[in-house]
Amino acid sequence: MSLKLPRIYPITDPRLSCLSHAEQVTRLIAGGATLIQLRDKHATPREFYHQAAEALNIARDHGVRLIVNDRVDIALALGCDGVHLGQTDLPVEAARDLLGQTAIIGISTHNLAQAQLATRLPVDYIAFGPIFGTATKANPDPTVGLSTLNEVRSIVSSWPLVAIGGIDFANARETLEAGADAVAIISALVAEPTQIKENMRRMLLATNS
After folding, report:
1. Per annotation, catalytic residue among 17, 27, 96, 108
2. What number does CATH give the domain 8-206?
3. Does residue 18 have a pLDDT over 80?
4. Is 187 considered catalytic here?
5. Is 105 within 8 Å of 99 (Cβ atoms)?
6. Which pLDDT does position 80 carry in this prediction?
7. Is 96 annotated as catalytic?
8. Which helix (H) or strand (E) holds 30?
């Protein structure tokens, strides 16, 4: 539980941004990102591998940590900093065995029971959501709201907690104040490709306590 999360945790989306993962990572880093998750639900494993390799080179050049969504195999093959797993992905224990003790492993949770269970798993952070309505998932789980996020903060105690789902400039600060250590953001950062760098900067300023 020693992971120190940045308050803004950007996630790439090639379809939303119409940019490669590498180009999104370049612009996010220029805006101040220090930890980025690569998320791609549509590319073939081969395509995602090559794009992730390019993105990782850029991240390494800037001392930025890179997490891969779902694909433990790609994170392992490339030596990425870690992986983010959903409830139906490879079990956390298996991912830990493959990636080792120094890898960052996060898990998505969507209700209080899942969050409680996550505290007994070998993870470095627990993500909870969707806090608000989100358009970046085809079949999103029910929105949970800030009051439930506050309950989860109590349940997970000092575990690093990431809020995700529909977080934007209007609600990022209150989401952090409700108990999240970090907010994971896709649309508000990358949906307008020419504004990614500026959006990242603005989001850091908007949530600076």
Report:
1. 108
2. 3.20.20.70
3. yes
4. no
5. yes
6. 98
7. no
8. helix 21-30
| β-strand partners of 85 | 107
Q: Residue 115 phi/psi, 5° resolution? A: -65, -40
Verify whether residue 158 is a known catalytic residue. Answer: no
Query: Is residue 154 exposed (0-12), middle (13-18) or buried (19+ Cβ within 10 Å)?
Result: exposed
pLDDT tens sequence across 89-119:
999 999 999 999 999 999 999 999 999 999 9
What's the farthest any 2 CA atoms get from each other in the chain?
42
DSSP 67-80: EEES-HHHHHHHT-
Residue-wise pLDDT tens digits, 28-66:
999 999 999 999 999 999 999 999 999 999 999 999 999
The one catalytic residue in 15, 41, 137, 154 is: 137
Q: How many whole angstroms separate alpha carbon 192 and alpha carbon 135?
A: 15
Tens of pLDDT, residue by residue over 112-158, are 999 999 999 999 999 999 999 877 666 778 899 999 999 999 999 99
The single residue of 39, 71, 96, 153 carrying the catalytic annotation is 39
Asked if 105 and 82 count as a contact pair (C-beta separation under 8 A), the reply is yes
Angle between helical axes of 45-61 and 21-30 (0-180°, round to 10): 20
Peptide bond into 130 cis (omega under 30): yes
Domain boundaries, the chain: 8-206
Task: Please enumerate in sequence order all residues whose Cβ is within 8 A of that of 55, keeping only pairs 6 or more positions apart, or say none.
Answer: 12, 20, 21, 22, 24, 25, 36, 38, 66
* Residue recorded with tokens 């990358």: 190
Its pTM surpasses 0.90: yes
Residue count (the chain): 209
Residue labelled with tokens 């370049």? 26
